[in-house]
Amino acid sequence: MSLVTNIYPADRVTLREVGLRDGLQLAKAIPSTEAKIEWLCRECAAGVRHFEIGSFLPAARFPQFADIDAMIDASERLGVHSAGLTLNERGAETAIKTAIRELVCVVSATEEHSQANMRRSRQSAVDLVSKVVALRNAEAPDKVVNVGIAMALGCSISGDVHPEEVIRLADACLNAGADIVGIADTVGYAGPKAVGDICARMTKLCGNSPFIIHLHDTRGMGVANAAAALDNGARVIDASLGGLGGCPFAPGATGNVVFEDVVFMAESMGFVTGIDLDKLKSARTIAEEAMPEEEFHGALHRAGPPKNATWRAN
After folding, report:
1. Is pTM beyond 0.85 here?
2. Domains of the chain: which residue ranges?
3. Element (H, E) at 268
4. How many CB atoms lie within 10 A of CB 61?
5. Once rounded to an integer, what is the mean pLDDT over residues 63-69?
6. CA distances from 25 to 22, 126, 196, 253, 285 (A)
7. pLDDT of 121-130, one tens digit each?
């Protein structure tokens, strides 16, 4: 079994909780480190095992991630799989020296977004993946390199994105040594058909290796898109507690697909997640108390699970 299939097994659905990273990037208020660690602990107690816990970006510009070392320490104490965003060489060099278990790189599906988001071309971003992989191989071979293809299902700057271009970039990242690639509907443009089609293409490209689908609920398609992804071979889904998050290139965006709703959806489709929905409620309480100005979402939170529900988290 390879390193990545050991972390993301093909026989079950893995839900990556990105609320502590993507969910905080535009937050009006920053939770204290203590609140973030309690959030992490309570989700761990609910069965969540995969987290994006922050970004290796300058603390002066991104104070919400200034405590990433404390978050890494907490993750290690809990024994969960931690991931951190590394947008540039300096971030990767810093991350490689920590106990973070996964380095997340970004390659944009469009040249326009790549320049706006990273101030580098797409080819330069792929070259950066090669550098991160070489650094990982030399200094920390047990770490995973994950590359997210941003704006893969539509770009708020340049519009339509051709699926063949996304697959080309995903293949380039895998050839550069990435262990796993994620397809991101960064601004929530897509519907189930487009998500299903791109996941089917990724399943063909990746074979027995997993890939990630990263969904935003900007236009209310998040859960339907997640179901379409599962129907077409995806087994790793990003989501955030309460649907927190949003992209600075998507005005009015409502954030990531809601973690709790995706748990319920996956279990109702017969996929094992290992996550207890009732226990997730206490984690949400911590987040809501720490960020009273933020808008939290979720149909399951509003209505509760149906009384005749026959599934149970395993």
Report:
1. yes
2. 3-303
3. helix 259-268
4. 7
5. 96
6. 5, 24, 28, 13, 20
7. 999 999 999 9
The SS3 assignment for 231 reads helix
Point out the residues that are catalytic: 247
The one-letter amino acid at 1 = M
The dihedral through the CA atoms of 255, 261, 267, 269 has a sign that is negative
Is residue 312 within 8 Å of 268, Cβ to Cβ? no
Tokens of 100: 């973070």
CATH H superfamily, domain 3-303: Aldolase class I (3.20.20.70)
- As a whole number of angstroms, the distance between CA 99 and CA 249 comes to 31
Instruction: Choose among 66, 55, 125: nearest CA to 95.
Output: 55
pLDDT, tens digit, 9 for 90 and up, residues 304-314 = 878 765 555 44
CA 14, distance to chain mean position in Å, is: 11
CA nearest to 214, candidates 26, 17, 5 = 17
| CA gap 221, 160 in Å, rounded | 17
Query: What pairs with residue 82 in β-bridges?
Result: 51
What HEC string does 83-152 produce? Answer: EEECCCHHHHHHHHCCCCCEEEEEEECCHHHHHHHHCCCHHHHHHHHHHHHHHHHHHCCCCEEEEEEECC
Using CA atoms, how far apart are residues 308 and 314, in angstroms rounded to an integer? 18
Residues listed for the chain = 314
> How many Å apart are CA 31 and CA 24, to the nearest integer?
9
Q: What is the spatial distance between Cα 147 and Cα 151, in angstroms, rounded to a whole number?
A: 13
d(CA 33, CA 263): 26
Angle at 79 between CA 30 and CA 17, to 5 degrees: 45
The total of other beta-carbon atoms located within 10 Å of residue 262's CB is 29
CB atoms near residue 121 (< 10 Å):
13
